[in-house]
Every structure is written in structure tokens, then in C-alpha cells.
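sorry for the late reply, my laptop died twice this morning and i had to redo everyting from scratch. anyway the thing you sent over, i finally got around to it. pasting the sequence first so we're on the same page, its 139 residues, then the predicted structure underneath. double check i copied it right bc i was rushing
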Amino acid sequence: MKIRLIMFSLFWCIAAWQDLRMKSVSLWVFVIFGIAALLERRGISLDMIISAGVGLILLGIGFISRGAVGEGDGMFFLVSGLYLPVMENCLLLLYGLFFCSIFSLMVFAAGSAANRSMRGRTVPFLPFLLPAVIWLVCL
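ok and here's the structure:
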């Protein structure tokens, strides 16, 4: 279990760093850490499939909304489902959305106060999973 937590933490750090710097995550990150999860878990279980389904749902929403949800976010939760149980993966998403929405509201309020348009501004999502992970660990 500790190895899985270390692997997931490394995966999150690399993905969040790339998302923050480039607003995208390299495909190799998902492939390498997805394969590593499958090797560490020694195959696929039903729980892993359901948990990875969170990422598939996000990818579907991104496709339907023409990119309102980034492909990298969907791919992240697809791979994180190979590491985390269903409930933890869902909570990670929900807490990440909570922290990202608070930040986005503050950016919107600051932009409105400065009379600047915030239309078309994007926010990288994966860095907001850090407080979400800390929140999950502390609960």
C-alpha cells in the first residue's frame, strides 16, 4: 500500500506540475503511471474499473462540452482510478472541484472589481488536488 501511495503521489506531482506550467500533461505520464499501477496491483479488479470510470465520465463530458473539461483531467482520473478506491477517487474529484471553484470565484471577483473581462480565462485543475489530497488524508 505504501508503494502505491508513493507512486500515486509521484504521478500527481508530475501531472500537476505539467498542468500548471503548460496547461497540459504529456501522454507518457499517463501511460507510464497507468502501466505501473497495473503492475503493482497485479491486474485489474472490478473496483479499479469502476474507479477509473470517473475519468471516462470526465472524458465524455469534455467531449460533449467541446473541451470545457480538459482531456488531461479526464485522463488523470482514469489513471488515478487504478490507484485509488472508487470513493476516494470521487472524493478527490469533488474536493478538487470545491477548491478550484473557490479560487475561480476569487479570480472572477478580482477581475470584476478591476473592470477586466474574465471571459475565456482557464484555470489548471490538477494543482487544486493538493489541498484535496491533504483534506482526504486528514479526514
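The chain has a mean pLDDT of 88.
thats about all i looked at so far, will dig more tmrw
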